[in-house]
Design brief:
Length: 342
């Protein structure tokens, strides 16, 4: 066979291989066809083995064409092998489906506990005719303090551990800043709640963070009395926390008069005394009071005609009590092992 003929023969062998692989291939004869073309004594491997017998220039050309043919055949073989394997495995799993087995459980996502309780709170208040309002988180000292009857340089300001920004604004220390903002834009009668984030310069521990949630409430009308405040807030802690016993204590907040704290009987010890309630049997949940006449004046509302009450629930605290969480930081950790328990 002269060299040209040999090269043609190599091409023919490659084409034959292609055709054979294409036509009658199945799992059994795939390896057989492969062996015929690339086995030890195959035509192509025989040429490879005797390549040194050719003259150097010819050797190069023949070598290239043999290698090329071998690579192509190898490639076709591998692809077919994969294909057959894939077909078998999918047949297999299909025939192996056992309809009596329980299915794979789909993960059920749910709201973060803070969001869930907030939604419940909003629903409860809106059912009593309250409307949800919002105010900015970065506040002026005027709305955070002055308009709430806490004048500049008055020691009462120290109660709120305040962050001050370089431009004089403050991340609000409480949602009470929304009170005057709301009364300036809406005319009484008013029933609003204002949920939102607040910020204080606190050292972080199990019950304090530098950021927390509050829900402010404001009720303004002509004949609002302290008994209205009591009725609504008692209903609130009963609804949200299942509280059985409540009590009101006098407290001082410059923007209410009188000012009160609503306590519930400790849900952990039933009033006997434990380390959650610091052995008092009571837990403070809602600071509140009757809107101070000065606050009405700042908002442009006549305090001789209108009365009102306000409250500010520390909301994260409420979530801790409701779900028996002993470390506030857990609620903000984003730890799924914790959050999946709710
Ligand atoms: N804003 C007060 C605080 O954060 C709570 C409060 C709100 C008290 C409304 C009375 C009335 O401490």
């Amino acid at each position: 066979m002269d060299n040209n003929e040999l090269i043609k023969k190599i091409e023919t062998v490659l084409n034959n291989a292609k055709a054979e692989f294409n036509e009658k291939i199945n799992e059994k004869n795939l390896d057989e066809v492969y062996k015929n073309y690339l086995g030890k004594n195959s035509f192509l491997n025989n040429i490879s083995r005797s390549i040194s017998e050719y003259e150097p220039e010819i050797r190069k050309i023949i070598g290239m064409s043999v290698n090329n043919a071998k690579i192509k055949i190898e490639e076709i073989y591998k692809n077919l092998k994969e294909q057959i394997k894939y077909e078998n495995s999918s047949n297999d799993s299909y025939s192996k489906i056992d309809l009596s087995l329980p299915g794979v459980k789909i993960t059920q996502f749910h709201k973060h506990p803070i969001t869930a309780v907030l939604d419940e709170t909003v629903e409860f208040f809106t059912s009593m005719g309250f409307e949800v309002v919002e105010g900015p988180e970065i506040e002026t000292a005027y709305y955070n303090f002055d308009a709430l009857n806490i004048p500049d340089n008055h020691p009462a300001r120290d109660v709120w551990d305040t962050f001050y920004l370089k431009n004089g604004l403050i991340p609000r220390t409480h949602t009470s800043s929304v009170q005057v903002r709301t009364m300036e834009t809406k005319k009484p009668p008013l029933r609003v709640i204002a949920p939102g984030r607040c910020y204080r310069y606190e050292s972080v521990d199990a019950t304090h963070l530098f950021m927390f949630n509050q829900v402010e409430g404001l009720f303004v009308d002509k004949n609002v009395k302290l008994s209205d405040l009591k009725g609504i807030l008692e209903a609130t802690v009963k609804h949200l926390l299942g509280a059985k016993k409540t009590r009101f204590r006098p407290a001082f907040y410059p923007f209410v008069e009188p000012g009160l704290d609503l306590d519930i009987e400790c849900v952990f010890c039933g009033g006997k005394g434990c380390n959650v309630c610091k052995f008092t049997g009571w837990i403070e949940v809602i600071p509140c009071g009757m809107v101070h006449p000065k606050v009405f004046e700042y908002a442009g509302i006549n305090p001789d005609i209108y009365k009102g009450f306000a409250f500010g629930m520390g909301f994260d605290r409420l979530v801790m009590l409701k779900y028996n969480v002993n470390d506030l930081r857990l609620l903000y950790s984003g730890n799924m092992d914790v959050l999946n328990q709710f």
